[in-house]
Amino acid sequence: MALEIERRFLVIGDGWRRHVRWQGELQQGYLTSTPGGFTLRVRLSRQAAAPGPDTDPATGAWLTLKAPLASAGDGEGGGLVRQEFEYPIPPADAGALLALSGRQLSKRRHGLDLADGDWVVDVFEGANAPLVVAEVELERPDQPVTVPDWCGLELTGRHELSNAALAHEPLASWPAERRQALLQALGSS
């Protein structure tokens, strides 16, 4: 079974920028998503930096199914571990599926040169700007991680700030008080 083991954090400031190795533009559409965490996503990734040795190897298109662990009890894993099945698809198919998807988001992804896992920072665009989120993919749930000082509130397991939730209810559509509380946590009030 394919697993995604990931921690997520709100990003505060721009200290992460000195660690950028590559960047790309992502467009994601959700064909289905449930409150229980099951999602079917299409992603189209376009390289934003000149090709080179530090270029993101993940340029193309994918269809991804994510689901809670079948064996997990209520709350087990806290959103840290999920099943993930990802398949490359032709970019033209991704474009067609994106056109069918009513729930989309776009972001600029930056790959970082940090240790302790595979780190990226996502800078959300459009209706989810100015949200910036750091993610680290891990090999095992108990793997120790040195969390950089530019990471603020941990978002792991916070469904309302998952990509699927933000595609359904973008930050710009949140009630002003709720949006302001998040922006204050980001330090960009």
Features:
single chain; 189 residues; mainly beta; eight-stranded antiparallel barrel; 3 helices; 14% helix; 40% strand
Structure description:
By secondary structure, the chain is mainly beta. It has 3 helices and 9 strands; from the N terminus they run βββββαββββαα. Strands 1-5-4-3-2-6-7-8 form an 8-stranded antiparallel β-barrel. The model has no long low-confidence stretch (mean pLDDT 88).
| % residues in beta strands | 35-45%
Fraction of residues in helix: 10-25%
Average of pLDDT: 88
The end-to-end distance, rounded to whole angstroms, is 42 Å
Shape: globular
- Poorly predicted regions: none
Strand segment count: 9
H/E topology pattern: EEEEEHEEEEHH
Strand order of the largest sheet: 1-5-4-3-2-6-7-8
Number of helices: 3
**Which secondary-structure class do the elements indicate?**
mainly beta
Radius of gyration: 16 Å
Biggest sheet character: 8 strands, antiparallel, barrel
